Amino acid sequence: MAEQRRKDLLDEHRPENIARRLQQQPKSQKVSDFVLGAIDGCVTTFAVVSGAFGAGFSPLVVLVLGFANLIADGFSMAVSNYEAVNAEREYRELARRTEERHIELVPEGEREEIRQIFANKGFGGETLEKIVATITANRQLWVETMLTEEYGLNSTRYSPVTSALVTFAAFIAVGAIPLLPFLMPFLAQQTQFVASTVLAALMFLCIGMLKSLVYSQPILRAGFSTLLLGGGAASLAYVTGYLLRQLFGIDAA
Fold first, then answer.
1. What is the DSSP annotation of 105-163?
2. pTM of the predicted model, to two decimals?
3. Which stretches of the chain are DSSP H helices?
4. Which of 69, 87, 199, 200 is the most buried (most CB within 10 A)?
5. Would you give the distance in Å from CA 169 to the centre of its chain?
6. What are 157-180's pLDDT values in tens digits?
């Protein structure tokens, strides 16, 4: 097994494979947005279902609370993600304009920044001067290097609108699944809740496994980790609803 892994690594690091890998685009932000929306959608909706069921509310009340929460929280999360991505994009553009202005006004100072950045990486002497000369000879490369090294900004650019839409769609699509059993009036309420629990658990497992495939994590560990997180949130909501029912004598069945 170890020998096979070594052979695979050697194959991955052949010049042509390295070149092909470096030309690939970074993993899409859409995956992160989808996972974020899906997990939060399932967690928050099933938490509402658990809390309402624990409080003894009728299936109709569970549906009303669930769908109201689904739409409102989905929109809220989409807006929040939009603002976060947009703020990062605006900050990057501000940093870019700042560096372009500095290069225009104090080129020697900016050149010295490049020199010190790469000197801190261990380069020196003639090699260091060649690196400085190469980078500062290309204005775009110079600016991008400063954005990465001085500001710690990733060169990958994301669309805030796309991020918001993907998050909202994932939130609604996955978050609605735990509510489906409550749309079946021919089922007993206890059966509806059990079915909702099973569906939510399957969603948590699938989301965790999807995340593991994208980010090269152990599939089962990622799946059960997400399941435990979602189950923990739902359990807290159920216990809270049950305690409030006992405390205030709620009887909404």
1. H-HHHHHHHHHHHHHTTT--HHHHHHHHHHHHTSHHHHHHHHHHHTS---S----HHHH
2. 0.73
3. 2-12, 15-23, 29-54, 59-105, 107-119, 125-136, 139-149, 160-175, 189-214, 219-248
4. 200
5. 14
6. 678 888 889 999 999 999 999 999
